[in-house]
Amino acid sequence: MAYIFTLLFLISCVCLVVGLIRPRVFAGLFQGKSTRKQIGIMFGMLIFVSFVLVAASPLPEGYEEQSNEPKAEEVVIPETEVANSEPEEVKPEEVQEENTPVEANLPAPVAVQDNTSITEAEVKPEPKEEQNQVKDLFQVTEVVDGDTIKVSLLGTLRLIGIDTPETRDPRKPVQCFGREASNKAKELLSGRKVYLEYDPANKKDKYGRTLAYVYREDGLFYNAEMIKQGYAHSYVQFPHPRLDEFNIYQREARENERGFWATNTCNGDTTKAASGSKPKSTTPLPISPEFNKDGFIAGTCASLKKLGLGNFREGDPNYTKSRDGDGDGVACEMN
Question: Which residue among the candidates 166, 168, 180, 314 is catalytic per the annotation?
């Protein structure tokens, strides 16, 4: 019976679809004009009834419900093998003594690493100053003397904390070890790129020059190096952040007789004239009507240089901006 009801269910579904598309096919069943509504009701009821009858019909004979679980295969052991089998002989050393504690056969405990034993010294964060630090580099354009240089963008720099013997002061002779200090400065800085550190309390001197500690691109601390090698004094007249450090370098240079601290050079006294240096002329200069009591000498730089005068720094009565053409703080510069 299940097959008959299933066939009825399928025929009803087909008729419902056909009737909804072309109702005229079933006009004879309704004795006149058939509508989709009539067809839907009739065949819908037939589909429902046939579906219920299919579900209620018993299963055909011989049908077995298949199971998805695999059946375990039975293993048949011959009786002869069971009869002839004997228990295996257990060796005495394999038998565990009754009084042996259970813990004796347990595996050894696994050592757990204690991460809390790591000290702060082993995990040391990088200093903040060294992380991604970018320093502005300046090109050294001129070495004026041991404690004064010119760099790109900033112009003239006065180096903090050092004082080298004079070589270009028109009012003084070339001082002892002055040429050596100037040559050493050129050796260390000429054509080099440097980066600068500043004293926040003193960024400019009275002549308007930038005050700075100078480091070469390779890290050489120029200010300290000049003191260490005996080419510069620690400038104690004005305090600065590294004054104590520079004083230590000076004491070491003096004790080891380096540079101008040696007895065969200046013995530490750089105020005396260098050997072979001619003292400045004491002959009175010709007085012109424009010479005033403040010490200003009228004339062009060319005329003053003929008289052996020049290198007037800011603060000197003969320094004027018109004479300082390059604006480096030195007027009527002499080679």
Answer: 166
Q: What is the pTM of this model?
A: 0.47
Residue 311: exposure state from Cβ atoms within 10 A (0-12, 13-18, ≥19) = buried
CA distance linking residue 72 with residue 25, whole number of Å: 58
* Distances from the Cα of 261 to the Cα of 126, 141, 164, 180, 232, angstroms: 41, 30, 13, 13, 10
**CA separation for the pair 121, 49 (Å, rounded):** 87
- Domain with residues 138-279, CATH architecture: Beta Barrel (2.40)
The model's pLDDT over 73-82, given as tens digits with 9 standing for 90+, comes to 555 555 555 4
Rounded CA-CA distance 287/285 in Å is 6
Which residue of the set 158, 168, 192, 313 is catalytic? 158
Residue 165 vs residues 80, 149, 233, 298: alpha-carbon distances, Å: 120, 15, 9, 29
In this predicted model, what pLDDT tens digit does every residue of 120-170 receive, in sequence order?
A: 444 445 544 444 456 899 999 999 999 999 999 999 999 999 999 998 877
Which of 168, 180, 192, 209 is flagged as catalytic? 209
Amino acid at site 150:
K
Question: Phi/psi of residue 202, each to 5°?
Answer: -140, 95
Domain ranges within the chain, ordered by starting residue:
2-56, 138-279, 281-335
146 SS3 class: coil
Q: Residue 166 catalytic?
A: yes
Active site residue 158: yes
